């Protein structure tokens, strides 16, 4: 019934490298396109790594897991699928090298088990845990401490306005990676125009981006057979339906949304209609007609010009609409209806006995509502006057084949996802915080919480080692009138973990502080009353996680609260493109590894740092004047004398996306390495075939 | 064994019929088919140009991104030139004179050899298509011009020369009905009232709803509905309606009732005829069985019967011609299909010409002219442009040459009789000569007229063989 196999790191490496080689050719501005053909005969041109990987239809469960991780990352940030898989393969290769060495490796030394298999498993799990701790603690601090000084801000002023030039260079760099240089300029202009046209005031930026991302299907249309240069932005909405009835109207057009048929049927569901006489039947038919006519007249009297319906209306309704001069658009999708409701803030009209005579209030007003011919299809073009933070606009993608318009549409959508990420900030506490919009972190929290007991030794020593960690005593901070109660509960949670760590710190040999500016104030006093209150707050905040572990810590360990350090990544942080982020992170990870006294972390940092370099290696592999070795040498020598990196290309990219990428890759590797057993179940193929839960430990 | 055989020269039929497995070719044919769906014509031109571009670019073997960058620039050169007033290969279409329009239609029809039209037939059909098109243009110009419709009526087993155009609509009716219905009720001598129904008048029960309907014994809903239908008939007669047209079925009793009162009934006209019918008569499709509003009625100028071969038609003659019927005749089914496609293409080309009243020279002259323009431009390109594209002048010239060659390759495909193709060094037009000419003869003795017919051998134009190495000139 079921076949079981243990995890083989070599296999993992092979799978990841096979996947990476599938997308490697399309990486970077000089990368090529891929042509996917479907069994139905459709073809799709793409440079989208996620598209390619998902199309592969993989067999091995671990490879599918990798692709699932890529997809999740891509759907969140709209970018980085190719980089993800390449980084993943390099990282796995590096880890395999560690495992192969065995002797002298810090992951194998303190284990005295008889069976080599168990030993192997144990060292895998150790690596996995170290990766997680690296991601949650060290990565953030390196970002905050070292990389942050290299970040540029996309905002031209502190009010959070973003200049058009910056926007263009961010978008251009994005499209360069997504669709290549043939239509990159056109699309980046298009998306830039779209951004500025849709935003009505700058505080509505996030709301606008959310709406655009959620309803992108409704906000774009594709036309095949026309040149790509015909792609354009239209003001207002394009409803993907034709008028059932069209009566031209001028001026302010009042419109109504209906979600059910206006014409009533002879009998409703659950009711019986008894016919006693032929005359009665005729009379009821006449009554129904009269009622429909009355409703339409009522709408006409209320100056309603357009009826937007989510259902198909009866012919009788369109007939009376035509007579009353009311246009009807029917069979609108529920998404279109909800988009219209969201942007205008109205709710659908339901004709009942009561409101048939009263005034209709739930209307929206349009500047125009006219037919629009796109290609061979007729649509409805709608221009609303009163809207929310989102100024309705839509994009028309033109291209010779469906595959091209689809590629452009998905790249455009990705660009807005990327912009959404660009305006996000990362706090130091983010690593342990259960954020609803970052599923990676959320899940990772659970993982680390469930393993806290096991990992605790590592945790404590790690944070202790961290030179950038700025810890102060709770008592001290209370004395300094620090508004502890005002601290957010999630922030306190991160503090709880740190508390545990500093206790261990005391039992260890004193750590040399690398930065004199950082102060360690330690206090061996017992927990004060206020601590309990905070702890209780924290407990309620993390109810869903294993609270027992936390409470144990609370009772037995000395408490320190990490003072409010600055955010790791400010909203709108950008870096020049061309592997700058990777080179920077590589450089600082290496220098961190040199100072680090934890052998495991040193090893992990080195592996990650080396894996990061694979990206610029591929990017610079084709150009003659800028070979990788030259670029790398220039960059490191500039860093050694504390200069900014030399820029090779125009264009900027979001730091948050890159940071998320590294975090996601680390998480993916950690997840893969915790697999004990792969059980293939034939009966239930839809269930997950991968057994990666922590209970197996 | 057996099966459908089709002779065609239409790209849409050709590409649709091929089964292609190579993915790149799939993309190519899909793009050409999408192009045809937008512009109707020039599918084969597009396909040949695409293929020879791929071929020629592969031959020079540069990095793909360099070729794309340069060819994008070449494309912008071409479109800018074609859009500019100085363009030497376009003429503006004058809607006041019939000559250019007629030659436009003629060149579309003549470019489809599978239609098997001789010269007089081609001329006759061109006139008909143009006439039909002109009938669909509204007389009064408003802000939103909506063109009328030309309905093609098939008549097979007749000569092409028998094809005609009628203003108004032709609806086929059975012969038995013809004798019964005339004369019809008229409001006045030149007005016939008409009612157009879009719902079924068959007496079926409609819109019962999701619940249950309980009918007592002895009560027939069908009788009730028929009663309603006959009441409707009474109203129509009272309103002096002379013609009733229904998209769906009319109940035989109602039909008979109306015909007894000299009202012509036509049912099952189908949804495709509804729009031209309502456009033609100004009537609104009625969807109610009671209290029909008199504003929905339309009017006709006259009603006549026409018969072709074995078919009988009711000819609806409107007051204002916006809709016309083109009776298209051809010997057999297959040739008729081909001819219909060609006529539709010609009609669409005319419609597109209204949007942009410009035409390009035919007969290969546009291609050769454009090719020589691109060659010339590639030699005089400023260095700043080369820097922006990030390529060397030699690279640019090589790609431009491949581009020009591809254009000339399309022109060469026009020569089917194994002849030689010349081009002149003044206008860059296309000249076709018979092969096997003596090497020492004078070119001007061989050539007669260029492809488009604008230039003749009277001018001394300095001819040379196409695609031979020659110095670039300014066309």
Beta-strand percentage range of chain A: 5-15%
As laid out across the biggest beta sheet of chain B, the strand order is 8-7-5-9
Shape of chain A: elongated
Give the radius of gyration of chain B. 30 Å
Computed structural class of chain A: alpha+beta
- Tell me, what's the shape of chain B? elongated
Beta-strand content of chain B:
15-25%
Number of helices, where a helix is a run of at least 4 consecutive DSSP H or I residues of chain B? 15
Q: Most extensive interface, residues per chain?
A: A-B, 51 and 48 residues
* Helical content band of chain A: 40-55%
Mean pLDDT over all positions of chain B: 87
What strand line-up does the widest sheet of chain A have? 7-14-13-9-11-12-8
Distance between the termini of chain B: 55 Å
Low-confidence stretches of chain B: none
Q: What value does the Rg of chain A take, in angstroms? A: 30 Å
Q: Mean pLDDT of chain A, rounded to whole units?
A: 75
Strand runs of chain A, count: 21
Helix-residue proportion of chain B? 40-55%
Multimer state: heterodimer
Number of helices of chain A: 24
Protein name (chain A): Bardet-Biedl syndrome 10 protein
GO biological process, one term (chain A): chaperone-mediated protein complex assembly
Organism (chain A): Chelydra serpentina
Family (chain A): Belongs to the TCP-1 chaperonin family.
């Amino acid at each position: 019934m079921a076949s079981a196999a243990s995890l083989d790191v070599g296999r993992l490496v092979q799978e990841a490298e096979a996947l990476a080689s599938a997308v490697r050719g399309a990486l970077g501005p000089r990368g090529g396109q891929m042509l996917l053909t479907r069994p139905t005969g459709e073809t799709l041109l793409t440079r989208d790594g996620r598209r390619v990987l998902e199309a592969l239809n993989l067999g091995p469960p671990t490879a599918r897991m990798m692709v699932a991780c890529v997809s999740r990352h891509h759907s969140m940030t709209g970018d980085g699928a190719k980089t993800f898989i390449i980084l993943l393969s390099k990282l796995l290769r590096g880890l395999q090298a560690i495992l192969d060495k065995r002797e002298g490796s810090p992951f194998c030394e303190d284990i005295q088990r008889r069976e080599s298999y168990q030993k192997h498993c144990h060292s895998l799990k150790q690596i996995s845990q170290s990766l997680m701790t690296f991601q949650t603690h060290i990565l953030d601090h390196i970002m905050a401490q070292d990389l942050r000084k290299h970040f540029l801000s996309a905002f031209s002023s502190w009010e959070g306005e973003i200049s058009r030039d910056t926007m263009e260079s961010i978008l251009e760099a994005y499209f360069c990676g997504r669709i290549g240089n043939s239509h990159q300029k056109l699309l980046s202009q298009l998306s830039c125009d779209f951004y500025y046209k849709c935003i009505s005031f700058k505080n509505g930026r996030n709301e606008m981006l959310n709406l655009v991302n959620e309803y992108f299907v409704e906000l774009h249309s594709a036309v095949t057979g026309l040149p790509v240069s015909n792609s354009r932005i239209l003001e207002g909405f394009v409803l993907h339906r034709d008028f059932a009835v069209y009566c031209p109207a001028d001026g302010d057009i009042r419109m109504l949304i209906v979600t059910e048929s206006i014409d009533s049927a002879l009998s409703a569901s659950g009711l019986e209609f008894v016919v006693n006489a032929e005359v009665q039947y005729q009379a009821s038919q006449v009554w129904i007609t009269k009622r429909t006519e009355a409703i339409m007249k009522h709408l006409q009297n209320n100056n309603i010009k357009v009826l937007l319906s989510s259902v198909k209306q009866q012919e009788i309704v369109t007939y009376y609409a035509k007579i009353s001069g009311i246009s009807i658009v029917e069979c609108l999708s529920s998404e279109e209806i909800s988009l219209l409701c969201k942007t205008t803030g109205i709710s659908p009209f339901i004709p009942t006995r009561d409101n048939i005579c009263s005034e209709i209030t739930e209307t929206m007003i349009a500047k125009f509502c006219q037919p629009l011919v796109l290609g061979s299809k007729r649509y409805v073009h709608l221009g609303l006057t009163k809207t929310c933070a989102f100024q309705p606009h839509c994009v028309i993608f033109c291209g010779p084949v469906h595959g091209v318009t689809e590629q452009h549409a998905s790249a455009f959508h990705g660009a807005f996802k990327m912009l959404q990420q660009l305006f996000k900030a990362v706090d130091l506490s983010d690593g342990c915080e259960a954020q609803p919009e970052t599923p990676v972190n959320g899940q990772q929290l659970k993982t680390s919480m469930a393993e806290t007991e096991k990992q605790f030794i590592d945790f404590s020593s790690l944070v202790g080692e961290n030179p950038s960690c700025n810890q102060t005593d709770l008592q001290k901070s209370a004395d300094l009138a620090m508004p502890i109660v005002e601290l957010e509960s999630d922030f306190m949670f991160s503090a709880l973990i740190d508390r545990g760590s500093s206790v261990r710190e005391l039992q260890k040999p004193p750590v040399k502080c690398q930065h004199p500016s950082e102060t360690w104030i330690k206090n061996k006093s017992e927990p004060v009353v206020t601590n309990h209150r905070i702890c209780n707050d924290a407990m309620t905040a993390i109810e869903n996680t294993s609270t027992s572990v936390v409470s144990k810590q609370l009772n037995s360990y000395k408490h320190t609260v990490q003072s409010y350090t600055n955010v790791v990544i400010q909203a709108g942080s950008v870096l020049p493109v061309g592997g700058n982020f990777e080179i920077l992170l590589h450089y600082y990870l290496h220098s961190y590894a040199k100072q680090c006294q934890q052998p495991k972390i040193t090893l992990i940092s080195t592996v990650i740092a080396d894996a990061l370099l694979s990206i610029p290696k591929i990017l610079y592999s084709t150009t003659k004047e800028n070979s990788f070795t030259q670029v790398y040498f220039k960059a490191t020598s500039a860093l050694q004398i504390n200069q900014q990196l030399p820029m090779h290309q125009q264009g900027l990219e979001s730091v948050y996306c890159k940071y998320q990428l590294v975090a996601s890759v680390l998480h993916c590797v950690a997840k893969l390495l915790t697999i004990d057993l792969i059980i293939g179940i034939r009966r239930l193929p839809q269930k997950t075939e991968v057994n990666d839960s922590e209970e197996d430990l | 064994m057996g099966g459908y055989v089709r002779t065609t020269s239409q790209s849409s039929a050709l590409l649709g019929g091929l089964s292609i497995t190579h993915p790149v070719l799939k993309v190519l044919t899909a793009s050409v088919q999408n192009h045809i769906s937008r512009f109707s014509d020039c599918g084969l031109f597009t396909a040949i140009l695409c293929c020879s571009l791929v071929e020629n670019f592969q031959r020079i073997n540069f990095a793909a991104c360099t070729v794309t960058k340069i060819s994008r620039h070449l494309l912008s050169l071409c479109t800018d030139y074609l859009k500019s007033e100085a363009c030497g290969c376009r003429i503006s279409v004058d809607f006041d004179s019939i000559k250019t329009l007629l030659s436009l239609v003629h060149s579309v029809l003549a470019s489809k050899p599978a239609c098997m039209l001789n010269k007089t037939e081609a001329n006759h059909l061109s006139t008909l298509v143009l006439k039909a098109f002109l009938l669909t243009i509204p007389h009064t110009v408003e802000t939103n011009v909506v063109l009328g419709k030309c309905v093609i009526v098939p008549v097979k087993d007749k000569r092409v020369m028998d094809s005609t155009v009628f203003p108004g609509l032709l609806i086929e009716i059975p012969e038995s009905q013809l004798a019964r219905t005339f004369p019809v009720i008229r409001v006045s001598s030149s007005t016939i009232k008409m009612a157009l129904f879009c719902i079924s008048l068959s007496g079926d029960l409609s819109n019962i709803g999701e619940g249950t309907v309980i009918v007592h014994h002895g009560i027939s809903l069908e009788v009730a509905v028929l009663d309603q239908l006959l009441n409707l008939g009474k109203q129509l007669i009272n309103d002096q309606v002379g013609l009733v047209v229904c998209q769906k079925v009319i109940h035989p009793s109602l039909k008979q009732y109306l015909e007894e009162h000299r009202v012509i009934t036509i049912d099952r006209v189908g949804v495709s005829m509804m729009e031209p019918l309502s456009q033609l008569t100004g009537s609104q499709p009625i969807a109610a069985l009671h209290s029909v509003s008199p504003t929905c009625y339309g009017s006709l100028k006259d009603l006549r019967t026409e018969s072709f071969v074995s078919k009988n038609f009711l000819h609806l003659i409107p007051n204002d011609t916006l809709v016309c019927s083109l009776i298209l005749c051809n010997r057999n089914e297959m040739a008729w299909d081909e001819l219909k496609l060609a006529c539709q293409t010609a009609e669409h080309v005319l419609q597109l010409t209204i949007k942009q009243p410009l035409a390009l020279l035919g007969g290969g002259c546009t291609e050769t002219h454009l090719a020589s323009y691109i060659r010339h431009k590639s030699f005089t390109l400023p260095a700043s442009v080369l820097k922006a594209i990030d390529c060397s002048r030699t690279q640019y010239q090589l790609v431009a040459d491949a581009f020009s060659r591809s254009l000339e390759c399309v022109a060469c495909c026009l020569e089917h009789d194994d002849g030689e193709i010349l081009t002149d060094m003044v206008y860059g037009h296309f000249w076709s000569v018979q092969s096997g000419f003596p090497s020492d003869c004078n070119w001007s003795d061989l050539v007669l007229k260029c492809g488009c017919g604008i230039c003749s051998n009277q001018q001394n134009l300095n001819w040379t063989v196409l695609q031979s190495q020659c110095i670039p000139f300014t066309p």
